[in-house]
Design a protein that fits this description.
Blueprint: E1 12-15, E2 18-21, H1 28-36, H2 46-58, H3 65-77, H4 84-100, H5 107-118, H6 128-144, E3 150-152, E4 158-160, E5 168-173, H7 179-195, E6 200-206, H8 210-219, E7 226-228, H9 233-237, E8 245-249, E9 255-259, H10 265-274
Parallel strand pairs: 5-6, 6-7
Antiparallel strand pairs: 1-2, 3-4, 5-8, 8-9
Helix pairs in contact: 1-2, 1-3, 2-3, 2-4, 3-4, 4-5, 5-6
């Protein structure tokens, strides 16, 4: 997803959407540094480090920085496949931070609701904004069940979602500036090459200017269709507020699976399996 990671040495912190003057404590600074370093870790090391960071955050006193650390970690844990235990510890930490210091806006409760809904973890909050977030996710998914759009790919071919009956369609929202998007693209391309003959269609949608996308794809080519949504009309239809996001429709046009962040090849395969591929 789009992530907000604050510079390590600033004396301000975004505590759930409101910028507040804040001096990181001696105990918080190494945790913040660990969060900032996660994307640079090898894939086999990242889950263990993430889980340990979640436990360290939970042990902190209830300072203003504690919930900010919890939400930053929650925003990164969904990149790839950290394993259920790591996801659970991160969600538990976020829920605990919200109980200690309730958020000033609804976004952290939406993040917690997404972990519960899409990552199959257990977490709860008595705050009514958490229940509202779960209901909103239900409404968003119901809307996505009936969506249609028509976009033209960079090669000039026009694609309409509801005209792809009989195909398994993976709609992927991405951008060239997004590290998790870039990381999952080789896996998506490999899956497209492997399953295109069995009915898989991948429609990759960016909201960027064409020269930017063309330049990136010239250096990192993919074989699946890439299209532009410059007015963000389709992004809005799908309620895309962070990337990457992927939605998989089965051969009848039913929304069978979705992801809220980067997926690995094995995770994409599981999504496609749920769509009958």
């Amino acid at each position: 997803m789009k992530k907000l990671i604050l510079p390590l040495l600033v004396s301000a912190v975004l505590v759930f959407g409101q910028q507040t003057k804040y001096q990181w404590t001696d105990a918080e600074q190494p945790i913040l540094a660990g969060i900032k370093s996660l994307r640079g870790l090898p894939d086999d090391k990242r889950p263990g480090v993430t889980k340990n960071l979640a436990l360290q955050i939970r042990q902190l006193p209830a300072t203003p920085g504690k919930p900010d650390l919890a939400i930053q970690l929650a925003n990164l844990v969904t990149e790839g496949d950290p394993g259920h235990d790591t996801l659970q510890e991160t969600a538990t930490t976020l829920a605990a931070a919200l109980r200690e210091r309730p958020a000033v806006n609804e976004r952290p409760y939406m993040s917690l609701a997404q972990l519960v809904r899409y990552e199959n973890v257990e977490a709860a909050s008595a705050d009514p904004r958490f229940a509202t977030a779960l209901k909103q996710l239900d409404a968003d998914d119901e809307k996505r069940q009936h969506l249609d759009f028509t976009l033209t790919a960079l090669d000039g071919k026009t694609w309409t979602l509801r005209q792809l009956s009989g195909k398994v369609v993976l709609v992927n929202f991405w951008a060239t500036w997004c590290p998790p998007c870039r990381k999952e693209m080789p896996d998506l391309d490999a899956l497209y090459k492997q399953y295109q003959g069995k009915g898989l269609v991948i429609l990759a949608i960016s909201d960027e200017e064409r020269p930017i996308v063309d330049k990136y794809l010239a250096e990192h080519p993919v074989t699946y269709p890439v299209m532009l949504d410059r007015g963000r009309r389709v992004h809005s239809q799908f309620v895309v507020d962070g990337i990457p996001k992927s939605f998989v429709y089965d051969r009848t046009g039913h929304l069978a699976a979705e992801s809220i962040d980067m997926r690995t090849r094995s995770q994409f395969l599981e999504m496609l399996k749920r769509a009958g591929l």
